[in-house]
Batch of 3 targets.
Target 1
Amino acid sequence: GNFRTDSGGECGVPTAKRFLPPKTKQGNYTSNGVFWYAYSFGLVRTIMISSEHDLSKGSPQHMWFQHELKSVNRTTTPFVIVESHRPLYHSKPYWADNAVGIAMRAEFEDLLRKYRVDIFFAGHYHSYLRTCDGLYASKCSNGGPLHITVGTAGAQLDDMNLGLYDNVWTQKYLGVWGYIRATVHNPSLMLLEFVNPEMAQWKTPFGCIGGEKKKGDLRTALFANL
């Protein structure tokens, strides 16, 4: 998470020293500790990238990321999730932060669509935001992933008085504490839950509820209140 100045710039050191993520090699490029790596759990392939390191085209991280996406076996892991500290899309009028997201889109958003990434999770902003599904190049239902920002695990929440700037892709925004829980029921159904005990409705079905749908139809997501 982003806890502003309380770490003196060393917020990643304890994690880097205490945790050893899986090491993967793609071509001539390898993962990099806690900063970028990938792992499979059940039907999901999760790829962690670092928005705080070089992600420009041709960089070691970008090359590893591209090879990692290309190598995913969609038969054994039909769901692909990418996680990053910073989001590619957010509607809060923090213009310096938004500029970083726009720059990230220019470097690798094409890869998310090309390799059919399902969900892009991020934090950084201390709020919950869900975009429309299929978001690519600021257009909904355009072949991209669903983007969810959930930086609400306990730090001070963003100032709700600032509001949001107008766009076509913001579907839901909340300024409350909570976290995401994902339950994969089968190769074509994942249930996302924004867990907040004070809210009566906090389930977001991703995929089809009731009846079967082919994996190729997953891009049409059905949502409850969140």
Note: Residues 95-114 form the longest helix (20 residues).
Target 2
Amino acid sequence: TFDRLMGTCCSSPATSRPAQAGPRAPEESGQSRPLRAERPVWHSPEPLTRREVLRQRNEFWDTAPSFEGRREIWDALRAACEATDHEFARAVLESARVKLPNGLLTLAYDELGTKYVIPVFCLSFPQNVIDADTVSEPSIAAPPREGQPLPLKVRLSTGTDLQLDLQTTSTARDVERMVLGVTKGLENARLLVMFCGKRLAATTALDQTGITTGDVLQVLVFTARK
């Protein structure tokens, strides 16, 4: 549940609800504003560690597609929420034709008018977050093994699933090259490799991310508009 994270949002109180997708709302979905750079400022009812917030984010994004709405839109929203580059986030939303009535990722509509509401904990950490644990760096005491087979399922935002025979030392760039090599029609596409809602840098080795056999990599596919 997301109860512990439903704190006070200083920028928009209505955005503290769990995300959802709903039916068309013409009075709201007819307009769109550019994505604003600022992120919500909020407090959690009780202090949380960064790891706990990230766990809730992953739980939310894993279940979000079960709501109404299109998986590719959820994928685009997730990529935009996790992006550290503002212009990249705007490009992702534009490519997916996502509308933002108030310029914030907390409320969005797709081109069909379906509503998507994103909770604030997917956009920023609470001001009272506890930096008591490490959330993104691998354990120094347990260095990853090198060169071991790592078969993984790769799920494209186009709906295609691939089974790739990777190595623990394979990088996100290697994943992109393999996807392009076995998938037709992506010659001019831009690919974005993600795991647990986070974009993987091109040179990041898979064994530096905590990925293990049986996990699923997401690859967002962005094609140029015609």
Note: The first helix runs from residue 26 to 29.
Target 3
Amino acid sequence: KVNTTLRVLTLSGNSIKTRGALALADALKGTTALTTLALHDNSIDPAGVVALADALNVNTTLDELNLMSNPAGYEGAQALAGVLKVNTSLTQLNLSFAEIGLDGIRALADGLMVNMSLTCLSLMGNEMGSAGAVALAGALKVNTVLTELRLEKNSLDAEGASALIDALGVNKSLAKMGLIFNNALPDEMFDEIKALLADPARAAAREAA
């Protein structure tokens, strides 16, 4: 059966695990209605995330995917990075606390460089460190559609903050960046990033784009 009516499906905290993710992936390939899929905290491993990503390579309706607190790992992040390169419907992706690691962050940054639809990306709690922030900063210099980036609790320090500040000098689309619980991040750099994001000239540039 093919779904033609259900638009929002929330299954968070149901321990559907990889078997459930595989079933949902099959359904995603055929649905023409579903726009939101919330799978927070379901013990979905990399294989399950890869299956969901494969489905999104053909699905053209899903707008929001929440995979927070699932062990997606590098393999899952890499597969979703591939989705970012081809999918034009997904606008919100939550991979917070997904154990994707630095290589996963780098893969997603590569996808962001060509993506033209994602507006909100949440990467909280992935302990990416400065190297991850540097990779994302490189993507921000090219990406023109992302408006919100959540980087709380990622062990960011002055090096990562410096890269993000440099990127914000080029990028004009980003409006929000979550940075709390990065204890090594100097207060003055935190304040500088917030000031850059609040600059009225950025809002004017977004409206003109």
Note: The mean pLDDT is 96.
